[in-house]
Design goal:
Elements (H helix, E strand, L loop, with lengths): L6 E4 L9 H15 L4 E4 L13 H12 L22 H13 L3 E4 L3 H6 L18 H9 L5 E4 L6 E6 L3 E6 L7 E3 L7 H11 L4 E5 L6 H11 L5 E5 L2 E4 L5 E3 L9 H6 L4 H9 L15 H7 L10 E2 L2 H14 L2 H15 L6 H9 L8 H4 L1 H4 L18 H16 L6 H14 L4 H13 L8 H23 L1
Parallel strand pairs: 1-2, 8-9, 10-12
Antiparallel strand pairs: 3-4, 4-7, 5-6, 10-11
Helix pairs in contact: 6-7, 9-11, 12-13, 13-19, 16-18, 16-19, 17-18, 17-19, 18-19
This protein binds one RNA strand of 75 nucleotides through strand 6, helix 6, strand 11, strand 12 and helix 11.
Length: 483
RNA sequence: GGCCCGUUGGUCAAGCGGUUAAGACACCGGCCUCUCACGCCGGUAACACCAGUUCGAUUCUGGUACGGGUCACCA
């Protein structure tokens, strides 16, 4: 343990989209440092030339901005340990790799890709056999001068074990014989993740490495690297994986086949960043001494601790995300909700539709903004009428008595002085009383006539307010015709 | 296949030797009500299995089963 301030980092590779599992890793890494007043760094790991995606780092930066995960050092904000983009740090890796060669912890390997391929078994499993491990200095020199392509490999101990203590999983011990002589510097001169992340973490003063548990068994290799340099090893916090469930009910690492898995997909579907963050914070972590489920980022910073981290993988549940989102949507003040909903409604609704009122009706009925258009289809078009909708047992309505109600109410509505929910409701209630009918029966007839759909967001009078007088009357007339 | 990790209701999960084994989502009832939704009230449902340690195991140990991860010139 050191008494340095806690420094964590998020080190994604720029793939062009932010996987929700990566976002959760970023969140936990951020929370670990911020829960203890520490520092958080963003570093871009773009050492894979082939997978390079243009503009991909903007996606990362935008996501962090939208979720409120702010970094103290990194691209755009600078810092004393820059640059924070690995492709701009190549000379550093070269220098440290050479140090390791000099100290006997690494070596040049001239094996061809074909030879490496031949080492694999029928399942594609099989690692390097150490062919170039003991090349004489003369051979190395000769090959180098001949311009033979080479990589630099880390020389692993052949015997013994390597252990470290993980904050989540406890002591992890691996036989050194399981460790392959992995590549540190590729033939194109770029370093591999296995090597450069160690160099950067050390140089950037990272005290706690937070990452997914797919690294659990390769971490001893990194420990050995720290040891070879004589550096103090960081603390490790490996996180349980995020899983998805497919149609057959099988679980596997969360991926595209499970649905929208990137932060931007979710945002596009109308999920609020706060809700997404709140939900994923609870996938693999649980606060101590409270059953509270709602957390703002500030509250998460206060509540977070590594003890609450879980060891077992968590299945991403869209239903619960929806629930969180609907809760966050319901908490939005009406004006704020309208600011977002009205433009969506305006895309599909005629001018005379009261979008503000419609937005109000839809507010408590959606779990994501993408559901709005579908929900108001009965407003944007006149659906085919199914006269059986007029039949309702509880209110004792039938197509016949509904027609009677519609015919009676038409002149009443045409004579309405103003057109708002309260007025209309009073008017219809008075009519019901005068005919000794249940208000519900009157409302049912009108609601079906106007909406032409059984289930609607809002009641008869609310819908009439949405449609406005002219459209309402027109729809009622049509309904009478059809009956 | 070798190695590593994990296993509490359908899902997220609390629990850290003695509990009627929390809570949330989903689901099912009921109330409210101008349909639905919201809100409120209630309900169904779990310690993978087998040994061992112990007066006593969901909690500790070992094994089995199942699930996952990893063995790349990807991160």
């Amino acid at each position: 343990m050191s008494d340095k301030i806690i420094t964590t980092r998020f080190a994604p590779s720029p793939t062009g989209f932010m996987h929700i599992g990566n976002l959760r890793t970023a969140l936990y890494s951020y929370l670990l440092s911020k829960s203890q007043g520490g520092k958080f760094i963003l570093r871009i790991e773009d050492t894979d030339q082939e997978r390079h995606v243009e503009g991909a780092e903007d996606v990362i930066i935008d996501t962090l901005k939208m979720t409120g995960i702010d970094y103290d050092e990194g691209p755009g904000v600078g810092g004393e340990h820059g640059p924070y983009i690995q492709s701009q740090r190549l000379p550093i890796y070269k220098e440290y790799a050479e140090k390791l060669i000099a100290s006997g912890h690494a070596y040049y390997c001239f094996c061809t890709p074909e030879r490496l391929e031949s080492l694999k078994d029928d399942k594609g499993i099989g690692g390097y056999d150490g062919h170039c491990r003991d090349l004489s200095p003369e051979e190395v020199k000769k090959n180098l001068e001949a311009g033979i392509p080479y990589v630099i490999r880390q020389k692993m101990p052949l015997t013994g074990t390597t252990s470290y203590v993980d904050h989540v999983y406890g002591e992890v011990t691996i036989d050194n014989s399981e460790l392959r002589d992995q590549i540190m510097i590729k033939a194109d001169g770029y370093p591999t993740y296995n090597f450069c992340h160690v160099i950067d973490d050390y140089l950037m003063g990272v005290t706690h490495v937070v990452r997914g548990n797919e690294y659990l068994t390769s971490t001893p290799k990194y420990c050995l690297l720290y040891d070879a340099f004589g550096w103090e090893r960081p603390e490790y916090v490996h996180l349980p994986l995020l899983m998805g469930k497919d149609a057959e009910g099988n679980v596997s690492k969360l991926s595209k086949r499970h649905g929208a898995v990137s932060f931007q997909d979710l945002v596009k579907d109308g999920y609020l960043p706060e809700a997404i963050v709140n939900y994923i914070a609870l996938l693999g972590w649980c606060p101590k001494d409270t059953n509270e489920e709602f957390f703002t980022m500030d509250e998460l910073k206060k509540a977070f601790s590594m003890e609450g981290l879980s060891k077992s993988p968590a299945v991403f549940d869209y239903e619960k995300l929806k629930w969180f989102n609907s809760e966050y949507i319901k908490k939005l003040p009406a004006e704020v909700f309208a600011e977002r909903a009205v433009p969506i409604l305006s895309e599909v609704c005629a001018d005379y539709i009261n979008k503000e009122k419609l937005a109000e009706l839809v507010h408590t009925r959606i779990s994501a903004f993408c559901e709005i258009k579908d929900m108001v289809r009965f407003v944007t078009e006149r659906l085919d009428m199914d006269s059986s909708l007029y039949t309702n047992k509880k209110n004792k309505t039938t197509p016949e008595n509904c027609k009677e109600v519609l015919v009676d109410c038409l002149p009443i509505l045409e004579g309405a002085e103003s057109w708002d929910n309260d007025t209309l409701f009073t008017l219809l209630k008075e009519y019901a009383a005068s005919k000794e009918k249940k208000a519900g029966a009157v409302m049912w007839a009108i609601r079906i006539a106007v909406a032409r759909q059984g289930i609607t967001p809002g009641g008869a009078t609310e819908l009439m307010e949405v449609f406005g007088k002219e459209e309402t009357i027109s729809r009622i007339k049509q309904a009478i015709e059809e009956l």
